[in-house]
């Protein structure tokens, strides 16, 4: 269809909303601009994104994003609809939850989500008549009274054997379309909850191979979309007294996603364009290009002569005779999140996925986030990947000596790729130019990668004889033997300690430590150890290690599906005898019983912040923040007590400069601005915010960019001590109160810092307005 579409000529315009860094203790959700539905009303266009909403105010030409963190009641959006009677938007989620949005107020209608029933609760579409809004679901029709937001009734035309795709009204009749049949009944029938009160409309043939998708009414006439199992053979039909009459016959194929009828025109949203139809449902025109690129529509609407298209790649696009433009949120390029990597200000996200026994074939690629901008790396925008098989990008590492050097690891025939300018892949490695051995399809499993302090790239190559490999800073590949017990097995994560020792996980074999003696070229002085669950060979909680972290004291924190442990003597372990390099578990006294801290909680990741505190990610209990020694649980973040969107945490990564913690969950990416950051002994970039502090501000005043573990004092201009604290890494906070807990008066306050052993220095000031 693309080649036969009439394309409009236009220029690309961007409308950005303010997506600036968040304040201390605040959360934000990172949503891709991938739009799945669109609706308009009251001068507002809402594009439903996969995990939120993009709002576009037409007159103000402004956009904003709604999500589970800042406003909405749920995640995983399914559709959106504007109801003229109530002047409200109805937003549905795949679990049946519904939000009503009116005058910027969200009212949750959770009845379907909370209903104790089996089956598909997804809401596929909405329709309305009078004060009633009809939600078409996987089990039937749910009727909502828009006057009071209550469920009035539920109808079961298919007896819950099929989903209801859409409904339409003709005079006193209500029609419900399932994939195979059209049902009808009378609106005046008070027993529509009874499936027997619905009759199959014999004008519409029952489908067994093909299926029906959409139903629309116009001037008491019904039209439906019939999907053909063969690609490109979909059709629009007029339902007449004698049966179906095909409409919208074109000289090109149709793969229809949505159908809407307006007073003077109709729209067909197709897989690769938007088709405009006239009053007779005949071809009038089409859009298939934007900025000389193909569009990927999911739905579209007609508003005041303009077309607003929900696009799978470009978000929200407006097509107009006055000029076309992209109206999009600033977010990650895609909603695929698997693993994180980073170095100071740059966050890397691996979008692919790696399995223990095989590939997933994900082409999501990877993304970089720096200075509030996202950058995509995938096979469509990287020439080095164009003619290669590159999928399942599962790890990212950034060279600490050069933040523009980014390495990507995959489970594919192209296992390692490197960018030297943080923009373009310029070097790739595979079995032809590196010591990799692929399977019968040439796929190589790289489970994790990490640069060391000298700029060498260490690679963990699963299912190989020697899983530990390195690409030296001089571009020479080497591999190392770590014993037969770890050969040809699936590998996991790798971490490098402050002495450049390598620590990595192997499935069912515990944790491996490797010491190269500081000489990569000379293996004669190399040593390795293996920690497992044996009483004298590691004493790990489990033989499967899922998280490895090196803290500021060079202690190795080891997470497993059955709790965590700590290797305190990491350096001496390589020369230790059996039992001398066991990991230790923290014990606490709980109600008279001695227990392991966090018990057998499944640990998925461990990150260390600038204050040496430990952030523990779990598979089902959210995130725990532990004190530097791990003896105290400082905070616990769950979906129930915070804006965290899920308790199933996949991976964590710090922006060490700002202290923002990026969190991959099983349903999306969020971040949280912690009160800790990396210390800076040179005080080159000290920031105090907010400054000035306005009367309505109720948060904490933050000073960032100071030396690790500093004493911080706040004084008035006369030098009188007002408040003092100790920094978490390079960050300290003040609640604006004096030592007595009283709110300080308006004025200018000086900030002094010093380490515990050095003389103090003035590093900033803050103005408080009361």
Q: Tell me about the biggest sheet?
A: 8 strands, antiparallel
- Low-confidence runs (pLDDT<50, min 5 residues)? 1-19
Given helix and strand content, the structural type is mainly beta
Q: Kindly state the mean pLDDT as a whole number?
A: 90
What Rg is obtained from the alpha carbons, in whole angstroms? 30 Å
Strand content: over 45%
Instruction: Tell me, briefly, the overall form.
Output: globular
The share of residues in helices is under 10%
Q: How many runs of DSSP E, i.e. beta strands? A: 67
Q: How many helices?
A: 2
Distance between the termini: 64 Å
Quickly describe the structure.
This protein has 770 residues and is an all-beta fold.
Mind explaining what this structure looks like?
By secondary structure, the chain is an all-beta fold. It has 2 helices and 67 strands. The strands form 17 sheets. Strands 37, 38, 39, 40, 41, 42, 43 and 44 form an 8-stranded antiparallel sheet that branches. Strand 45 (491-496) and strand 46 (502-506) form a beta hairpin.
Topology:
Elements: E1 14-15, E2 27-30, E3 35-41, E4 44-49, E5 52-57, E6 62-67, E7 77-83, E8 88-93, E9 98-102, E10 105-109, H1 111-114, E11 123-129, E12 132-137, E13 141-145, E14 150-155, E15 166-170, E16 173-177, E17 182-186, E18 199-200, E19 211-218, E20 221-227, E21 235-240, E22 243-247, E23 256-261, E24 266-270, E25 273-277, E26 283-287, E27 289-290, E28 293-294, E29 297-303, E30 306-311, E31 315-319, E32 325-327, E33 339-343, E34 346-350, E35 366-370, E36 373-377, H2 383-386, E37 393-398, E38 406-412, E39 416-419, E40 425-429, E41 444-451, E42 457-462, E43 468-471, E44 477-480, E45 491-496, E46 502-506, E47 510-515, E48 527-531, E49 547-550, E50 556-560, E51 563-567, E52 587-590, E53 593-596, E54 603-608, E55 614-618, E56 623-626, E57 633-637, E58 649-655, E59 660-665, E60 668-673, E61 687-689, E62 701-704, E63 710-716, E64 721-726, E65 731-734, E66 747-755, E67 761-768
Parallel strand pairs: 1-32
Antiparallel strand pairs: 2-60, 3-4, 4-5, 5-6, 7-8, 8-9, 9-10, 11-12, 12-13, 13-14, 15-16, 16-17, 17-18, 19-20, 20-21, 21-22, 23-24, 24-25, 25-26, 27-28, 29-30, 30-31, 31-32, 33-34, 34-35, 35-36, 37-38, 38-39, 38-41, 39-40, 41-42, 42-43, 43-44, 45-46, 46-47, 47-48, 49-50, 50-51, 52-53, 54-55, ...
